[in-house]
Write a structure and sequence with these properties.
heterodimer, A: alpha+beta, Mth169, Chain: A, 3 strands, B: alpha/beta, two-stranded antiparallel ribbon, globular
Chain lengths: 93, 224
């Protein structure tokens, strides 16, 4: 990355969810309790984490690569969790 | 000379004194090592105790990996030194990449605090070198995320390489293949969810943890 490269700010929203096949006892417990409230039609409840931050990068592709690396090495445990990355240019006020 | 056992102390650890007490009762010289230290001070064995290192923020064990002492622990482990992670310490060693797999929330989503029976599945580890395969031990568990999991390939490797050290007789938390403890490929790094230090005196209701802790001391004497 060159020093004189213009940098842009990106706002990042990482959703961390349990991988397919990994038990999501919290989601299952919520789902089991819904019929008592009359929400019999709700299925597939998944509980995860939501992590938001800003990142600076010369372009969106570079920002995405950096965030993917961060997710792989720290924000998720790849044995049990998946990350979905939402990246938009600009920093929320 | 009495073997020296270093017991890591993270912000949020809460079983470190029990571990020191249990090893001292077996004739070891046990002391705490602050997580901010970069050296282990020449110990013969390292224990990562239970608790909530760094508040279990993000995931249990996830932040502890960045504590300065973990570099020294990794070097010690790679050089063959005995390293045992108990409960939260097991989670820390998995997150640090020193042990395979991960610990997810208990099936049933309950915090479990009771004495369980585990069966020794392998003696090829620093934790079980002095006990016999099939030995049943009554040891307390005290955890919310003790449900061991790994990929099917990793499980096949664990079985093929005799890396499953302890199994629950009556699986309390949904752990894959009833796993209560695993070792690394070399056998000098072990993680387990039950707390052997809480079963180290008849006054505590069980002494069944003592042979496990004694095995760690025997292994540390062997390399010293």
């Amino acid at each position: 990355m060159r020093d004189d490269e213009p940098m842009a700010a990106f706002s990042v929203h990482v959703e961390v969810t349990q991988r397919a096949g990994i038990a999501d006892p919290e989601g299952a417990t919520i789902e089991r309790s819904l019929p008592a409230l009359g929400f019999d039609e709700v299925t597939g409840v998944r509980v995860g984490k939501s992590i938001r931050f800003a990142v600076e990068a010369p372009d969106e592709a570079t920002a995405r690569v950096r965030v993917e690396d961060l997710c792989e090495r720290f924000l998720t445990n790849p044995v049990i969790e998946d990350a979905t990355i939402h990246l938009t240019e600009g920093v929320p006020a | 000379m009495a073997p020296k056992v270093g017991v890591l102390l993270f912000p949020g650890s809460n079983c470190e004194q029990d571990v020191v007490e249990a090893f001292s009762g077996l004739g070891a010289e046990a002391d705490l090592i602050w997580h901010g230290d970069r050296s282990l001070g020449g110990v013969d064995a390292v224990v990562v105790p239970g608790g909530f290192a760094h508040g279990d923020y993000l995931r249990p064990g996830a932040i502890a990996r960045f504590s300065p002492v973990m570099g020294a622990v990794t070097d010690f482990a790679r050089s063959g030194g005995p390293v045992v992670g108990i409960c939260n310490g097991f989670q820390v060693l998995c997150e640090a990449g020193l042990l395979p797999g991960a610990l997810q929330k208990n099936a049933g989503l309950r915090f479990l605090c009771r004495t369980v029976t585990v069966r020794v599945a392998s003696t090829a580890s620093v934790l079980t070198g002095e006990v016999e395969i099939g030995t049943e031990l009554r040891i307390p568990i005290n955890h919310f995320s003790g449900n061991y999991t790994c990929t099917p390939e990793a499980l096949a490797r664990l079985k093929a390489e005799d890396q499953i050290v302890l199994r629950y007789v009556d699986n309390p938390n949904g752990s894959l293949d009833d796993i209560a403890g695993v070792r690394d490929e070399a056998g000098n790094v072990v993680g387990l969810m039950p707390h052997p230090e809480r079963a180290s005196s008849a006054l505590l209701g069980s002494e069944d943890g003592r042979p496990l802790l004694a095995s760690v001391l025997a292994a540390s004497r062997a390399i010293a």
